[in-house]
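fold-stage: in
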Amino acid sequence: MRVKLNHKNNDGAWPTNYGLARGYSALGKYKEAIKHLEKALKMVPANDTVNPPVIQTNLEKLKKGEDIN
């Protein structure tokens, strides 16, 4: 996956974890996607009020076995 290279080249910044989660979700690898979304959620800057709710919603979808793409 191209997102793996992006993740590596950007030192695992939170948006790259989100990208990996979407990639794994597309492949049906929900457990791996959940792992990366949880990492992303922990790394989002404290002053970001937009992305955490979106990430949380996607985590809930993945935990129900639903694709986030």
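fold-stage: in (second)
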Amino acid sequence: MVVELKPISIDNWYDCTKINVKQERISVFPAPIVYWIAESKFVDDFELRAIYSEGLLVGFIVFCKNPDGGW
């Protein structure tokens, strides 16, 4: 199985917004993906990646390049 992490781009951002968190995880991840995409435009330390398995979009991650954040 090939897993790839690709930057969010004009080609995949909308498909990422269609990904939903499982109901049992909504308390941990309450914000929709479109929120993280918008937030990343204003917070320089946020990095977003689309997760692909065998060429199919299967997930999304957001992480901070600077874990201390300064905020």
